[in-house]
Specification:
Helix content of chain A: over 70%
Number of domains of chain A: 1
Strand content of chain A: under 5%
Number of strands of chain A: 2
CATH class of chain A: Mainly Alpha
Largest interface: A-B, 56 and 56 residues
Radius of gyration of chain A: 18 Å
CATH superfamily of chain A: Farnesyl Diphosphate Synthase
Shape of chain A: globular
Order of helices and strands of chain A: HHHHHEEHHHHHHHHHHH
Structural class of chain A: mainly alpha
Oligomer: homodimer
Largest sheet of chain A: 2 strands, antiparallel
CATH topology of chain A: Farnesyl Diphosphate Synthase
Chain lengths: 292, 292
């Protein structure tokens, strides 16, 4: 993934501020060694860092200072990872594999997996409110970013979307989109908003529109991949949607219908990016990645 | 409880800033109605609001402005509540009752209980970083309080303590205290620190000493009550410690030995409070509540 993306290595690779900041977030402190191990296990299990990349790309697209992107990027990655750990639990989606490896609870047990998710959420806010970041970015920006992240994570965001998904009943495209806008879109919209806020832009409506489009595209692509990939390609069990009789973009509109929708969403997102004041190259590249 | 505590009704009772702020935190927003219900269920199930009271009392004891106590008090109560919901889960302490009512997962199911805890944690940070609070208290204080709360909640705090408790093996008083200092003490220390920070005091070491003493006293008292109370008095299943062969202050030192320890801890805490610059009346009253 990284080779195709402008800035990826510099922003997220070895030696980057992001990678040092991520290391610091996982550095074993007081408490239970097993818990720190469980936290590290999933965070370092080879995710693509799509959200951190989006956040950096958004800072660039809004013409902001990239030096302020690392801490909020680590924070959003920790929140995303905690959600994967909790979503994989037996009482939730009951997934035994994640990123090609046994899920967190299969390795550390359910109790530790729940706690690892809980502690990763705390650690996300700790990272974004870190004294060093507050000093560099200012308390106002740091607290605003943390507020946005909290909103995007909670009942009116990601957790709310997962709850809607759990209780089910999305039987039309509108309900499906509303669920995904929270479950996946809220955190992605956060990365766009964070870029705008770091750049001092007031254009949060534009960031939200891009966030929603990219979030939906991400999910449609996920449905397409679930229907067409092997376990090796996917890193988790494929075909679960059809098996569970879930209403997805593919089961509802067929593979080609889903791909059409994906194309439309990506084109609309690209149009939005083109009018942003900064350098949209990286953001367009990230969006391009979602073509199935 | 409230009748004996100076300021309790004014700070936490109906019409108080705290109660309005708590209402706002639970006000149903976007997302899943079932999730909002699950969150509200345990938050409003009649807790004593010990931590919010401690936080208000600490602000007074440090001579700070009580007007800044509500939001961090709501936040610490939400974090505490999320920890109760997760700790009660079958894979954790497996408690069917909490505060005399069926635990969260018995009513809403495991998935929703996990999500309710997750979303309450996000909501805690949302509350403390709320735009109104940031405007009133200043971004620096708000972000510092949120940072302290994140540290107290996570792997080096409450979640770490619960992980130590889960993996077990506390077979002497030192290991037991170390576990409880994180599991219970970290959040209580947060309330003391928050009071000092709101008052602009630099005496965080004193706040930490009181926090640790009160936290330990709280836990010793919990062990004593677990050994001596009925389910009706306790609101949850008693006698579980002895039944599970757990090393507790009572199983290790006997009932009288545990009570001696409790007395010592409370006396030491009281000495610390007496040297604080503000009005320590409420804090002493809160500490006095812990006499078994």
């Amino acid at each position: 993934m990284s080779a195709r993306l402008p800035g990826y290595e510099r922003w997220l690779g070895r030696g980057s501020l992001f990678s040092r900041c991520l290391e610091l977030a996982l550095k074993e402190g007081e408490g239970s060694r097993a818990l720190w191990e469980a936290m590290e296990y999933t965070v370092l299990s080879g995710g693509k860092r799509f959200r951190p990349y989006l956040l950096h790309a958004s800072v660039m697209a809004y013409g902001g200072d990239i030096e302020f992107a690392a801490e909020p990027s680590v924070a959003v990655e920790l929140i995303h990872t905690y959600s994967l750990i909790h979503d994989d639990l037996p009482s939730m989606d009951d997934d035994d594999f994640r990123r090609g490896m046994p899920s967190n609870h299969k390795v550390f047990g359910e109790a530790m997996a729940i706690l690892a998710g809980d502690a990763l959420q705390s650690r996300a806010f700790e990272t974004i409110l870190d004294e060093g970041y507050v000093k560099r970015a200012g308390a106002y920006l740091a607290s605003r970013l943390a507020l946005e992240l909290a909103k995007a994570s909670g009942a009116s965001g990601m957790a709310g979307g997962q709850a809607l998904d759990m209780t089910g009943g999305q039987q039309d495209e509108e309900a499906l989109a509303a669920m995904h806008d929270l479950k996946t879109g809220a955190l992605i919209s956060f990365t766009l908003r964070a870029g705008a806020l770091i750049a001092g832009s007031q254009d949060l409506a534009g960031a939200d529109r891009i966030g929603v489009l990219v979030g939906r595209a991400f999910q449609v692509r996920d449905d397409v991949l679930d229907a067409t990939s092997t376990k090796e390609q996917l890193g988790k069990t494929p075909g679960k949607d059809a098996e569970q009789g879930k209403f997805t973009y593919v089961t509802a509109f067929g593979l080609e219908g889903a791909k059409d929708r994906l194309r439309n969403l990506l084109e609309m997102a690209e149009e939005e990016v083109k009018v942003l004041p900064g350098d949209g190259k990286a953001l367009l590249a990230a969006i391009g990645l979602l073509r199935a």
